[in-house]
Amino acid sequence: MISSVLPTYNRAPLAFVRGAGSWLETADGTRYLDLGAGIAVNALGHAAPELVETLTQQAGKLWHVSNLYQIPEQQALADMLVEKTFADTVFFTNSGTEAAELAFKMARKYHYAKGHPERVEFIAFEGAFHGRSTAAIAASGSEKMVKGFGPLMPGFHQVPFGDLDAVKALVGDTTAAIILEPIQGEGGIRPAPDAFLKALRELCDETGTLLIFDEVQCGMGRTGRLFAHEWAGVTPDIMMVAKGIGGGFPLGAVLATENAASGMVAGTHGSTYGGNPLGCAVGARVMQIVSDPAFLAAVNAKGGFLRQKLEGLVAAHLDIFEGVRGQGLMLGLKCKVAPTDVVAAAYDQHLLTVPAADNVLRLLPALDISDADMAEAVARLDAAATALEPKQA
User: Fold this and answer.
1) Which residues of the chain have pLDDT under 70?
2) Range of the domain at 179
3) Residue 184 pLDDT
4) pLDDT of residue 393
5) Is residue 384 part of a domain?
6) Which pLDDT does position 133 carry in this prediction?
7) How far is CA 379 from CA 360, 375, 383, in A?
8) 277 within 8 A of 62, measured Cβ to Cβ
9) Which residue of 119, 160, 186, 293 is 20 to 30 Å from 126, comparing CA positions?
10) Residue 179 maps to a domain
11) What span, in angstroms and rounded, lies between the C-alpha atoms of 51 and 319?
12) pTM
């Protein structure tokens, strides 16, 4: 008999009833150290006092009015994002998947409005994850994402991640945009080299192609900059944001230049809940905290501390781990065993981690995690790796 909750997840036999900072607690009081943060969502940890206060205050005033009216909280957050980024305009969604849908629509509508309706195709990259909608799975192209869901939306092509020649071979008169994650998350914490991002920007400028960055997982301070593409000194035309922007409240956004958004006029897109007062009030508080230069400097320092600890862990368990990759507090352990085995062994140590493709274990802690909690997490990973090592005869 099917579960009352559609069984599309292989859920761990764990249920949490409360959380504080980087710790979660089950009903019987067992505490787990969380190095997943809801898959990079809880940027400020669980039950962050600032966010609880903001949400509670807003909940006592106004939850929802719809986008038929002006929403001051939405305007305030949009103004903050425009001030802090390349963007001139913002549309709010409830998730990264919804942001992806708008990004694809915006790119096609841009070329249509410019008199090039034939420019409808997208170049994406192997290992990408942009959500689970029809367009997003067509962009990923992987068997895991698309099997059984055909026919796929046409117009999407994949090339190897980081292969500039393959991109150049595909860009043509029908190309609308190139889309990529500056650091692939689900794909295994794979950073795109700065030179590659710069080359893509130049190629897009030369060919009139739009550049879309998916910063749903790597954005909002995760790498030690507000957005990961800032490290390369390039900017996209369109960017998808979600996860950390709401600090745990469902919130997403599409940021764009005035030029890229020029085709999107009244009636071309909408959202019932997108940009609601609750989500935007919380998002504005997250932005105030995460965009502070001192906060970002602390993320960089924490990332360096954690990476150093992880390098030592790898050296101590060469049968289990191969190396460390990533940036800031978006780190991955390349494994020599199945990462799901490491996840399971970590559960036994009351530690939460996240598997990814390319045999990688993701570590995505709260951005304000303490050094003591990071050291404790690595100690628990050490115990998990020891449990997995072959027993000596």
Assistant:
1) 391-393
2) 93-268
3) 98
4) 42
5) no
6) 95
7) 19, 6, 6
8) yes
9) 119
10) yes
11) 42
12) 0.96
